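Have a close read of the entry that follows and walk me through the local backbone shapes. See right below:
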Amino acid sequence: MKSSIFFKSLPLVAAAALSFPLCLISCSDDNAVTTPPERHWTTDGGLRATDNLLFDNNSIGNGDKELVFTGKQTLKKGTYTLKGWVYVAAGAELTIEPGTVIRGDKQTKSALIVERGGKLFAEGSASQPIVFTSGEAKGQRKPGDWGGLILCGKAPNNAGDQQIEGGPRSHHGGTDAADNSGVLSYVRIEFAGYPFETDKEINGLTLGSVGSGTRIDHVQVSYSNDDSFEWFGGTVNCRHLVAFNGWDDDFDTDNGFSGRVQFGLSVRHPQIADKSQSNGFESDNDANGSTAAPFTSAVFSNITLIGPQAVDAKFQNTTDFITAGDYFPNNGSGLGKYQSAMQIRRGSRLNCYNSVAIGWPIGLIIDGEKGDTPAQAASGTMRMQGLWFADMDITGSDANKSYVDEQADGTTPSRSTLFFNAWGNHSLSAKELLLSGAGSFTGLNADFMPTVASPLCTGADFTALDSWFTAVSYAGAFSPTDNWLKGWTNFDPNHTDY
């Protein structure tokens, strides 16, 4: 029988005498933190360290004040509502059991923030993923219904100690490249990314200086109202990532992120793009394009980027067409145009290998408006190699928001296209890729799987990559027989019963 759970406030003197982890409530005003009386959970008349972090009605937090907790806590399998900003404090550990569903409350713009030195252990399975989703009713969920999931760590970045994007009080950054923020495995994050202010959105999954001791694999971010995944510095390595119908960029790397990522899929909704112009990859060393170290030098391999033109043959890159349709949240988010599969800019030295992009207005932008990214490409410090582009309007462009394949002096092709060709990449049609059919590219069995006759099956080269990467024969995220999406992903979360 499930016992009733409620909370009560105890005198601070009595609380100090207790020997189990405590949950603290804090309120924030311009990032200043005060500490009201502590709250403790009571079950069957006794105080227990293992009790779930619950208020009434299976709610985590109450939305009126920020919830901060310390110690070790386990959230048992079940369905919960997350209210307000909930922090996992330094030294605390929160474990979420497989099969748990956490519904983000729209009214309180909820978010879960793991602070520097805290740990989140969210380890689901293919048959029992852990789901963070909208608390709105089925059929009424939209991008930005709640805040999102943030991990902050102690690994290096090139801006030093900094506050995490989106507005939470938490800072990230340090000197421990092997820092451990826990585990995210077989996790879905849906309808996150509330825009608290202009350029202060929480992403679907935000990673601030997260270290290589953290394990991240099999994570799907769907209908994020900002970027699906964004790394601010850090060294964490990731495998099997899915960005589905995001608003802005799919994989955004900044401030010296130097980890590795292998096996990733992004699929774009043809009517959802950001006012800043959306990309598959967007990568900066920092906002000013400086040469601050460590450099943004992450290495990606085996990524498949399905652009809006591949999803809808009638796609038009105009704000008359890109309206978000039924997914427009009316929360201040601005719609714009689509740009490129890959925009590398502002001093970034990002590397990408053995990857496929289909149906974007622009394939590759090596942008020199700020910083020295073109010089890094020319010197070989960064490389984009083993790429397969299909059905692009143009292969490359040299500047942000420029849809012409020419250099500044009007000569063609652009330097970006020249780099693309010099690195031995491939530009062809989707038909020539011999994928599994001619479908919509939107579901679990969509046509990003190559057939056995596809040139992608023998299109990979791992000679330039280190031993962390799994050496496979194929380019892109999938082989004809390895569909790692099965069991845990969801490509229609708006109509799922949670």
Observations:
- The helical segments are 12-17, 308-311, 373-379, 415-422, 430-433.
- The two ends are 22 Å apart (CA to CA).
- Residues 1-52 have pLDDT under 50 and may be disordered.
- The first helix runs from residue 12 to 17.
